[in-house]
Structures are given as structure tokens and as C-alpha cells.
User: Which sequence fits this backbone?
RNA sequence: GCCCCGGUGGCGCAACGGAAGCGCAGUCGAUUUGUAAUCGACAGGUUAGGGGUUCGACUCCCCUCUGGGGCUCCA
């Protein structure tokens, strides 16, 4: 039961204590400014967050960009005025009196345990209920900027009122702020939705439906390369590859428990000859059917069944986002059925495969978490202990550092999640390795053990990429669309200088194609400069200019996407260079 | 689902309630070019869809669809 995950912004950078305090204080200063401009505003909460801070307000109308400017101006005045931040302890009664006009603050006070000491922080004539800590003086915020406004439910609860949230950030220097803003711009520049269009990778259509992707020739090419690589890797690692249908009978999903526990993510049933069928939200039941198709012996375990399985899940319309959050996607799913004595080496094998794969895609920074048994869980606690210990042992055996997420496992088993860090330092959860003590029970999976009895196998779900769509979205942003040679949909464009060179350009193309490369000829009646520009903008790794000189020498003039003009080269020398580059991935 | 902001030729954007325009892409023609944009012409839109207000609607109002930013960082 694999989720394809979300952008986890919590693991980006450990929050520097100074920034944390500074941003917290900036939130107060912002609230101060908002109250000056909107005296009737009711304050929600205003914490520092990983890249800045926010504060929520209940106001009669949403804030406009002009409001933000005015608020920022007032904030800068407060900062320049160098007010001290003063901490005070306060009794519950006094606090209630002080915040009599602030219903949300009163709610917070009422929600705090009796033994907790209430504190307030003051600067100038502003006061807020707050446990701190803060900087000493408002003058100690060298750079602050308000970024955006958004609706946010009080306490994140959609049944509670929606407040207006202002996001901002603060840094210890104007340079650090500028760096941060540049990073935000860079992220915008790399937006996979924009690049996906510009590079002809994929599109989304009203006519097809939201959250549903169609891959264009170039995107299809990249995807094929990824999938071929994936299949090859899995066969090498002892997996078998399965294919399963997109729909299955209601009874299957009843047995699996999905209709009881996952129905809100599933689409309405399809009527087939008066029988209900459901689009699959997961692949596991199908793989289990393969397992169950014959009596399994302990000798044939482990069985590793993998599939690039396309699943459909209902996602609320507001959360859909390009390739990152969609309604139909392909999991690089696998289920490992094994004996207790095989668990550690199987988990280790998954980790080994994961790191090989992620490295090949250019990801070398990870953060790993191990999640243990939650309150509500199925399965024998002894099994949980064994499985959790095995996960830990596999991680420790590889000297990997990891965080413990106590109680963070799924109800059906403990898990390891791996977050990868991309070129911009953003963190994404892709890989997950999860034990499942639920489905083997529900489907009564057994194997014939060495004692002649029947034993229940361990079942491990795992996905490395997570979802192929989402992984490609991450890759596009990681590489800013400039895929490395092995992934580039078009590896080289041959650019004839004049029409009389087209014939030779085709010869070059054929030669490279026979050597296994993906090459196109730009035979338009345009200037070389334009063709170079187009190829650069399409982020094609190599441009091969051919004119009289090259034709004469059976050579090409090589221009590299990043390195620029590399000069003339014989075709064989180019092939050697390309192969060398491919070998390094 | 909820809040806010959007939806105008394939794409990116203009147009006060008073003649729907620009750039890119496309097509055609000329040009035959040496490392990031040659010149010219042509073509392309029931302004997302539906309803309403108005002498008149891209523009104002309502509904639907859809895109974006958020809605789990907790005094």
C-alpha cells in the first residue's frame, strides 16, 4: 500500500537557531503592523517555519499585494526603531483579560495545560502570547520580505474559519535574503510544468481531465529510457516482472480491505454484466494473486514481483499539481514474499538497488527515516518487532544514518522512507520500503515450510521511484530540463550550414544512429545561428555543425550544450566521447 | 472540498462597458548562411462553457468547468 508521497519541506535544512528566532520576531513585527492597519483583525498564530514565517489573521477582506507593501513598510519602521523584545510571565486570568478581544488567542489559552507557564512577548506597544524565544531587539532583523498571501484554516481544520495567512521571510543579511529569493526564482525557472511544455515532454488537457497526463514523443522517449533502465536493473537484481489489469472485481478489493479503508481514494465502480469492478488504486492484490496461483515452497522464496503498475486514485482537485500530484500514475511497485530468515538480506537488497538507481539519476544526498508501530495496528507485535529490527539492521549494516519516526508506520507494518535532495536542495520522498502484516493475513498467504507445515510469508512492498510521473517531474526540475546524455530524448542535432550539406548531415546522422545514438538533422532553410539557438533552448546535449570543411574531412564540428564550441572532430572520436560520457551516466 | 487570484489564436501577453491587438510558434516566398534569433507576406480567436444586466459585455452579476497559490511547520 504505497503512497506516492509529497514534497516534504520539513527536511530541507536544519533550521538555524538565529534565523528561527529572527523570523519568529519578524512574525510579531508583522502582526504589529497588520493590527495598526487593520485594527479589527483577529490574530491566529504566527510561527517561524523552515524558510521564513507566517501569521494568520481573521480579517473582513483578504490582503492585497498593496496591503503587503504597506505592512512591509511599517515593519521596516519598527525594525529601524530598535524596540526591545521583552518576555513576561503572566497568569491565566491576566492573559485572558489582555487578549479579551482576540478569540483565537483565548482558544489557545484555554487549550494549554494548567501547569504550563504562560508567557507574553512585548515590543513597542505590541504584545503577543508566545513562548519565544525572540531576538533581543527589533533592530536585529537585517533583511525581511513578505512573500505571499493565502487562505488557511484555523488550526488546519476545514470545518473551522478560514484565516488569511501572510508568508514572509527574514535573513541575517540582505545577501542571504537575496540568495534565498534567487533560489525561489531558480525553482520557478525550473518548473517542470513550464519545461514540460517547452521541451515537448507532456501535457494535460481539459478534454481528458485534470490530473491525467499525456506524454509527447520526447517525454515518451525519456520515459521509455527510464523504464528500460528500470526493467534491466530489476531483472539483474533477481526480480520477476508482472503485468496486471487496470480493473478488478469488487470482491478482490473487499478481501484486500481497500473498499473498507481506501474507498475515498477510489473511483466509482464500473458495471460489467451486473458485476462491480473497480479501477485499481494499488497493485498489491494482483501480485498476491500471482503468489497464490500455486502452492509455494520455502525453496522458491524469496519471490520478488515487480511491475510498472498504473494506478488511479482520487485526489482532491485542490491538490493536483503538474506531474507531482496526479490522478493516474505508474508506480514502480514490487512485492517481496520471503521467509523470516530472508528478511534482513531482502531489505538490504532493496537498499542496495535503491542507491544504485538514485545515483544513476544524479541523486547523492538522502535523508532516511524508519517508522515504527502506530497505536492502531494490525499484526502480531512479535512480527512488528522482528520486521522493525530487520529494517534497522539493514540500515545500520550499511552505516546509514536515519531518523526514527516512532509510531509513524502504516497500520499494517513498519517502513523505511528515503528522501532525496535535488539540485536546489529541496527534499522529495520517493523510495519507501514497507512491511505488510495485513494482506498476507487477509489473503491467507502461506508456503510449505521445511518442516512440512504451512507458514505465512513476510510481505514487503517497495517502490524506488515512487511514481514514474512524479519522478520525472523531479528529474526535470533537478536537471532544469537539461537531461544528461543517457536520458536526453535527442542526444545530438546535426546542423547543416547550407542546403548542400544536408546530404552529408544525413550520413552523420545514420552513422551515429547505427552506433546507438538518438540524433536528428535540422534541415530547415534557416541560418546556422538559429538552429543552434533552437537546439540550445531544447537543451540538446550536442550540436554537430557540418559545412564544407567537415564534409571534406568526414568530420563534425562539435558544440556542447554547456561547454560550447569544442572544434572539429572525426566521427569516430565523437562516438568515443559520447560512449565515454554514457559509461559515467 | 474550502479561501483568494486567474482562464483572450498552439504558447506568452494587451484591450475604460463603445471596431479583439502584439510577440513567439505556424504556412508561403526570398535568402544558402561558420557557433544563441535573416527578411517579407499570409493565415490563425463564437474572448473556457452556460445564463443574466445593458442600446451595447473580453470587461459587470450568477452558475459550471478548469489553472495557480495555499489550507499538516502550531502560544
Assistant:
Amino acid at each position: 500500500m504505497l503512497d506516492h508521497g509529497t514534497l516534504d519541506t520539513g527536511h530541507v535544512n536544519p533550521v538555524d537557531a538565529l534565523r528561527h528566532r529572527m523570523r519568529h520576531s519578524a512574525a510579531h513585527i508583522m502582526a504589529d503592523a497588520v493590527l495598526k492597519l487593520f485594527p479589527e483583525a483577529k490574530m491566529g498564530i504566527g510561527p517561524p517555519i523552515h524558510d521564513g514565517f507566517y501569521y494568520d489573521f481573521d480579517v473582513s477582506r483578504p490582503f492585497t499585494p498593496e496591503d503587503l507593501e504597506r505592512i512591509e513598510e511599517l515593519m521596516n519602521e519598527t525594525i529601524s526603531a530598535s524596540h526591545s523584545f521583552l518576555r513576561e510571565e503572566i497568569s491565566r486570568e491576566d492573559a485572558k483579560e489582555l487578549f479579551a478581544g482576540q478569540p483565537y488567542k483565548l482558544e489557545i489559552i484555554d487549550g494549554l495545560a494548567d501547569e504550563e507557564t504562560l508567557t507574553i512577548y512585548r515590543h513597542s506597544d505590541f504584545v503577543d502570547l508566545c513562548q519565544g524565544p525572540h531576538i533581543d531587539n527589533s533592530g536585529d532583523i537585517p533583511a525581511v520580505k513578505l512573500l505571499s498571501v493565502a487562505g488557511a484554516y484555523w488550526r488546519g481544520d476545514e470545518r473551522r474559519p478560514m484565516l488569511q495567512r501572510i508568508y514572509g521571510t527574514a535573513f541575517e543579511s540582505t545577501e542571504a535574503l537575496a540568495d534565498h529569493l534567487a533560489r525561489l526564482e531558480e525553482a520557478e525557472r525550473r518548473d517542470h510544468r513550464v519545461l514540460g511544455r517547452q521541451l515537448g515532454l507532456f501535457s494535460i488537457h481539459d478534454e481528458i481531465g485534470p490530473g491525467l497526463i499525456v506524454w509527447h514523443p520526447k517525454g515518451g522517449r525519456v520515459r521509455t529510457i527510464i523504464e528500460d533502465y528500470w526493467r534491466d536493473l530489476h531483472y539483474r537484481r533477481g526480480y520477476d516482472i508482472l503485468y496486471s489489469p487496470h480493473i478488478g472485481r469488487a470482491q478482490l478489493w473487499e478481501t484486500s480491505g481497500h473498499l473498507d479503508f481506501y474507498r475515498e481514494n477510489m473511483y466509482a465502480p464500473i458495471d460489467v454484466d451486473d458485476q462491480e469492478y473497480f479501477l485499481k488504486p494499488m497493485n498489491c492484490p494482483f501480485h498476491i494473486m500471482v503468489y497464490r496461483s500455486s502452492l509455494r515452497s520455502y525453496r522458491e522464496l524469496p519471490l520478488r514481483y515487480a511491475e510498472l503498475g498504473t494506478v488511479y486514485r482520487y485526489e482532491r482537485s485542490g491538490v493536483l499539481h503538474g506531474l507531482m500530484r496526479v490522478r493516474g500514475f505508474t508506480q514502480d511497485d514490487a512485492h517481496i514474499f520471503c521467509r523470516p530468515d530472508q528478511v534482513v538480506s531482502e531489505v538490504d537488497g532493496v537498499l542496495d538497488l535503491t542507491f544504485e538507481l538514485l545515483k544513476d539519476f544524479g541523486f547523492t544526498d538522502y535523508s532516511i527515516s524508519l517508522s515504527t508501530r502506530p497505536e492502531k495496528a494490525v499484526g502480531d507485535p512479535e512480527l512488528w518487532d522482528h520486521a522493525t529490527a530487520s529494517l534497522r539492521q539493514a540500515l545500520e549494516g550499511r552505516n546509514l544514518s536515519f531518523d526514527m519516526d516512532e509510531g509513524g508506520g502504516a497500520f499494517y507494518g513498519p517502513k523505511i522512507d528515503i528522501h532525496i535532495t535535488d539540485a536546489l536542495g529541496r527534499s522529495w520522498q520517493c523510495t519507501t520500503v514497507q512491511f505488510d502484516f495485513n494482506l498476507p493475513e487477509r489473503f491467507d498467504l502461506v508456503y510449505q515450510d521445511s518442516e512440512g507445515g504451512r507458514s505465512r510469508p513476510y510481505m514487503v512492498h517497495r517502490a524506488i521511484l515512487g511514481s514514474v510521473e512524479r519522478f520525472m517531474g523531479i528529474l526535470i526540475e533537478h536537471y532544469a530540463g537539461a537531461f544528461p546524455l543517457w536520458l536526453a530524448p535527442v542526444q545530438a542535432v546535426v546542423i547543416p550550414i547550407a542546403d548542400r550539406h544536408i546530404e552529408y548531415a544525413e550520413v552523420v546522422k545514420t552513422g551515429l544512429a547505427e552506433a546507438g545514438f538518438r540524433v536528428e538533422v535540422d534541415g530547415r532553410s534557416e541560418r546556422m545561428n538559429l538552429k543552434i539557438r533552437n537546439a540550445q533552448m531544447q537543451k540538446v546535449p550536442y550540436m554537430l555543425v557540418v559545412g564544407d570543411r567537415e564534409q571534406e574531412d568526414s568530420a563534425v564540428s562539435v558544440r556542447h550544450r554547456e561547454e560550447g564550441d569544442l572544434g572539429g572532430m572525426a566521427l569516430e572520436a565523437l562516438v568515443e566521447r559520447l560512449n565515454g560520457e554514457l559509461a559515467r551516466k
Summary: The domain at 11-182 of chain A is CATH 3.30.980.10 (Threonyl-tRNA Synthetase; Chain A, domain 2). Residues 1-15 of chain A have pLDDT under 50 and may be disordered. DSSP finds 18 helices and 29 strands in chain A.
